[in-house]
Amino acid sequence: MTADMTPLDLAHAAMEAAPDDDAARLRFYERLADGEMFVLLEAEHSGGESLSPRLFDSDGAQFVLIFDRETRLAEFAGGIAPYAALSGRVVAQMLAGKGVGVGVNLNVAPSQILLPAEAVDWLHATLGAEPEEALGAPEEIMPPRGLPESLIVALDTKLAIAGGLARAAYLAGVRYDTGAQSHLLAFVDHVPGSEGALARLVHEALIFSGVEAGVLDVAFFRPTDPLCAPLARHGLRFDLPVPEAEPSGPAAPGMDPARPPKLK
C-alpha cells in the first residue's frame, strides 16, 4: 500500500478509530466530496461529455473505481491506465440514482472502502441541499464567540477551494435591526453571481462539521460598505486564495459542476 498519508487517508483513519462519531464520518465524506478523484476508465476518453468508467462487481453490486492519487490508480491497474480527473462531488452527481456505488482506493491505500449506491445518493442529496434565504439588516458587529473549533476548521477548508470568488471573508457576531443576534460570515468584494455558490459552501461547512444550519448567516458586501470597517476590526478574517490563470480551450468532462459527465 502507498506509504504517504493523504487527507482522505487521515479522515478515513479518524472515522475508523471512532465508528460511533458522526462528526468523524461527516469529515470523511467532506474530504471525499472536495478532493480531486481519479476515475478509472475502460478506455481513453475520446471527447464529448460521456465517460465509460470501469465497473467493479462485489456481492451483486457494482462500483465505479476512484482514487485520490494518480499513482494509486496506476498501482491498482498495474501500470498506465485511462482515467478522468473529477471532484468527488461531480462523481456523486454523475452516479446519483444510477444504483452504482464507488470503490475508493481499493487495495492501494489505508483509506480503501466500498461505498454503496445509497451512500452515493446521500452524498449527492447532502451536497445539493440549498441554504435558506432570510432578510435582515445588520446593526452591530461584534467579535465571534462560542463557535466550535470544528466549524472554524471546516470554514477554512471550504474557503480554500473558493479561490477567485471573493477577496476575503469575516466571521463575526452580529445584531440585526430586529434585535436578533447570530453569527455572520461576511464576504467582501465577491464576484457578482457567486453568491449562491459561496452560500452553499458555507452551508456544507455547517453540515459536515455537525453544526446546526441556523448558527451562521451569510452576507455579501462591497469594499466601500460602512460595515466593512467593524467587520475588519472585530471579525476573524479568511483570505481566499487567488486562482492561477486557467488555460483557454474547451473544458474537459466534469470540469463544469453544472454539466456532470454522463455514463456510457
Automatic annotation (TrEMBL):
Residues 242-264 are annotated as: Disordered. Residues 13-122 form the SseB protein N-terminal domain. It comes from the Bacteria. Residues 242-254 have a biased composition (Low complexity). This is SseB protein N-terminal domain-containing protein.
